[in-house]
């Protein structure tokens, strides 16, 4: 039997749109704090807030995007989010104070949350059902590549050009996304009167897809564990004198996902989610434990590869499951539910973990996070795995 075609024009377009939007997100996350410090004299705490306050806007964007994506239209929601991001990108050029920067970061995050919910919903529609795991895996790879390329480009521009060049680059990326969004074909879902009635009002079920919560809760724990790597790796590498290797950590992380993705995505579809999700959790916890003992650059990079295979594979698989268990007219809600909860895990992780660092150090922190990752194994079994056949049609 011939495989259904995955790499269609629409799949390539929506994956590219997602890549360019994520690229601007990660690029600004690592540079905007420097902008706040140099241009407004902000202290470390306030500079950090200028970076992280983006997540608050994204959270509200995902909540509203998930609720209205079908009634308003998937393509219209995508275009709305991108238009808001373009407006925000222009505001960065306007001279103003720190308050304007903070407000604009929230606006930028709001647009990003709306657009991100739309891309995650649209991609589920254009992927053939028989290649769902593989397709979501490649779509998630666009985010992974952005995590490696975005910070690299941001730091390069920061060191070689004026800061406005960063805003110009981001604006160009978002305009490219806009052009691709206009050209993409999106098949809208028409809601029945009963479905429209179900989606009316402000009850919790209109903002959260209940069927997607169990697998998303596990993904949230893994995101909490990984947030410690994102936030404290630089400090840890400096303490252990492996800063040169740390510069390549996320490159190795992305390369490991790139190499493993064709295998893991295909096995997800052939043998079911559990076949790849349990090994992914094991790779994640091994990566954290090895990271805790990274006194040489080679060990640090081995940890990066394991974390790439573990965290990268688990998150893309969990996203595929979260979408597949939802009814077709609630795929948008399932997408926003997944990202709302995992964003919370990424957001609160550094704050909570930072409270323990003075007592246990960075080595101890990664040991604790490795133990947290072990807990994902029974969570996976009881919240999802035990109720799932060995092989499923996705």
What does this entry look like structurally?
With 394 residues, the chain is an all-alpha fold. It has 2 domains: 1-199, Growth Hormone, Chain: A (Up-down Bundle), CATH 1.20.1250.20; 208-388, Growth Hormone, Chain: A. The protein contains 14 helices and no strands. The chain has helices at 9-40, 44-52, 54-72, 74-91, 98-126, 132-160, 164-183, 193-199, 213-239, 243-246, 249-271, 273-291, 297-324, 331-383. The longest helix is centred in the last third of the chain and has 53 residues, at 331-383. The radius of gyration is 20 Å and the shape is globular. 48% of the residues are buried. Residues 390-394 have low confidence and may be disordered.
Main attributes of the structure:
disordered C terminus; Growth Hormone, Chain: A; mainly alpha; 2 domains; 14 helices; about 400 residues
- Rg from alpha-carbon coordinates: 20 Å
Run of helices and strands: HHHHHHHHHHHHHH
Count of helical stretches: 14
Could you give a short account of the major beta sheet?
none
Termini separation comes to 17 Å
Please state the structural category: mainly alpha
Label the overall shape. globular
Helix content: over 70%
CATH hierarchy class name of the largest domain: Mainly Alpha
| Structural domain tally | 2
Here the CATH topology of the largest domain equals Growth Hormone, Chain: A
The assigned CATH architecture of the largest domain is: Up-down Bundle
What portion of residues belong to β-strands? under 5%
**What name goes with the CATH superfamily of the largest domain?**
MFS general substrate transporter like domains
Low-confidence parts, pLDDT < 50 over ≥5 residues? 390-394
- In total, the number of strands is 0
Residue-averaged pLDDT, rounded? 86
């Amino acid at each position: 039997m011939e495989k259904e075609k995955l790499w269609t024009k629409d799949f390539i377009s929506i994956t590219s749109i997602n890549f360019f939007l994520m690229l601007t997100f990660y690029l600004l996350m690592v540079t905007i704090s420097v902008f706040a410090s140099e241009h407004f004299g902000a202290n470390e705490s306030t500079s950090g807030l200028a970076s992280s306050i983006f997540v608050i806007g994204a959270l509200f964007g995902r909540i509203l995007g998930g609720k209205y994506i079908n009634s308003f239209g998937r393509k219209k929601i995508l275009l709305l989010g991108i238009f808001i991001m373009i407006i925000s990108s222009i505001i960065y050029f306007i001279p103003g104070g720190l308050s304007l920067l903070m407000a604009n970061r929230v606006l930028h995050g709001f647009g990003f949350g709306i657009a991100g919910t739309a891309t995650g919903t649209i991609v589920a529609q254009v992927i053939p059902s028989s290649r769902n795991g593989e397709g979501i895996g490649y779509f998630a790879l666009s985010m992974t590549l952005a995590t490696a390329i975005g910070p690299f480009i941001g730091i390069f521009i920061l060191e070689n050009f004026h800061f406005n060049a960063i805003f110009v680059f981001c604006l160009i990326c978002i305009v490219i996304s806009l052009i691709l969004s206009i050209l993409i074909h999106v098949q809208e879902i028409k809601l029945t009167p009963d479905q429209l009635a179900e989606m009316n009002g402000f009850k919790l079920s209109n903002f959260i897809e209940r069927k997607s919560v169990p697998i998303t809760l596990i993904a949230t724990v893994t995101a909490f564990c990984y947030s410690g790597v994102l936030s404290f790796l630089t400090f840890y590498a400096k303490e252990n004198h492996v800063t040169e290797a740390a510069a390549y950590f996320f490159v190795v992380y992305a390369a490991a996902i790139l190499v493993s993705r064709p295998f893991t995505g295909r096995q997800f579809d052939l043998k079911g989610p559990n076949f790849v999700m349990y090994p992914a959790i094991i790779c994640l916890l091994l990566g954290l434990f090895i990271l805790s003992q990274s006194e040489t650059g080679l060990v640090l990079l081995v940890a990066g590869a394991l974390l790439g295979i573990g965290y990268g594979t688990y998150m893309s698989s969990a996203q595929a499951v979260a979408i597949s268990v939802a009814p077709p007219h609630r795929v948008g809600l399932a997408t926003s539910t997944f990202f709302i909860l995992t964003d919370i895990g990424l957001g609160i992780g550094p704050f909570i973990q930072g409270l323990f660092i003075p007592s246990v150090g960075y080595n101890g922190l990664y040991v604790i996070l490795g133990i947290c990752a072990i807990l994902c194994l029974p969570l996976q079994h009881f919240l999802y795995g035990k109720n799932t056949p060995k092989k499923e049609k996705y």
